[in-house]
């Protein structure tokens, strides 16, 4: 049995939908105070209202991971509301498609600024509070795309996700003396709201690439993040866990 998350505060960036919402739900179900952070406050509030019917205390906050000042202000607000920041789930990310031939500098910069620089901003904003925690945990949502695999149209996304892991390893070294761990979860094909509207045939094709013959759930990613955030996982840092139902295992 893992230690309780009661009175622990968890920030989830990009927490209003998709994987972020799944992460927020898992922590809320385990009794944590959860800060759902999104650029759109209404979306964050709707998510918080839904999750507050579960076990945790959930509140909504508006912030843009691309903006360092915005993230620092958010961390101050979360700490003032809940009294601590114990876990950061740096989950916010975007994945627009663009071929190498057509990709613009603006396309590249938007993805890198959100996924890679956004992770840096979120971590930096939370460090002062994580240092004060009984033990601090940072869990980054990366991807199998970039660190392990490639996908046409996602060269900027893949670069940003690989960058997150390079950042993670050095951040883990710098923060180890503060009893703060830094790890990452690498999802494979996961069923989110954005995929549900693409039709059964598309979803079946995605699932067929997975040895378990099913898509992952957002809660599958949430449970991996939960484990890395436990007290018992305190000797694990600078590591990544692939959560993909075996998707990367076949040779072809």
Automatic annotation (TrEMBL):
Gene3D superfamilies documented for this protein: NAD(P)-binding Rossmann-like Domain
Superkingdom of this protein's organism: Bacteria
Ketoreductase domain boundaries: 8-188
GO function term, MF aspect, one: oxidoreductase activity, acting on the CH-OH group of donors, NAD or NADP as acceptor
Gene Ontology biological-process annotations: bile acid metabolic process
Keywords attached to this entry: Oxidoreductase
Protein family membership: Belongs to the short-chain dehydrogenases/reductases (SDR) family.
Protein name (Swiss-Prot/TrEMBL): 3-ketoacyl-(Acyl-carrier-protein) reductase
Species, as recorded: Neobacillus vireti LMG 21834
């Amino acid at each position: 049995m893992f230690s309780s998350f009661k009175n622990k505060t968890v920030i989830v960036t990009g927490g209003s939908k998709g994987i972020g919402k799944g992460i927020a739900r898992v922590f809320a179900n385990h009794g944590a105070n959860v800060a759902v952070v999104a650029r759109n406050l209404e979306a964050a509030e709707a998510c918080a209202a839904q999750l507050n019917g579960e076990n945790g205390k959930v509140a909504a906050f508006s912030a843009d991971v691309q903006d360092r000042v915005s993230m620092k202000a958010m961390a101050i607000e979360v700490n003032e509301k809940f009294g601590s920041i114990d876990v950061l789930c740096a989950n916010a990310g975007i994945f627009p498609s663009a071929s190498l031939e057509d990709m613009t500098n603006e396309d590249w910069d938007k993805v890198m600024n959100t996924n890679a620089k956004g992770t840096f901003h979120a971590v930096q904003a939370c460090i002062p509070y994580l240092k004060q925690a009984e033990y601090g945990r940072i869990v980054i949502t990366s991807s199998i795309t970039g660190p392990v695999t490639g996908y046409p149209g996602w060269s900027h996304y893949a670069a940003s996700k690989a960058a997150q892991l390079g950042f993670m390893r050095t951040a883990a070294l710098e923060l180890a003396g503060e009893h703060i761990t830094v790890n990452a979860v690498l999802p494979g094909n996961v069923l989110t709201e954005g995929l549900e509207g693409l039709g059964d045939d598309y979803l079946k094709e995605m699932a067929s690439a997975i040895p378990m013959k099913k898509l992952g759930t957002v809660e599958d990613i949430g449970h991996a993040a939960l484990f890395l955030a436990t007290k018992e996982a305190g000797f694990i840092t600078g590591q990544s866990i692939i959560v993909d139902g075996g998707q990367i295992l076949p040779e072809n």
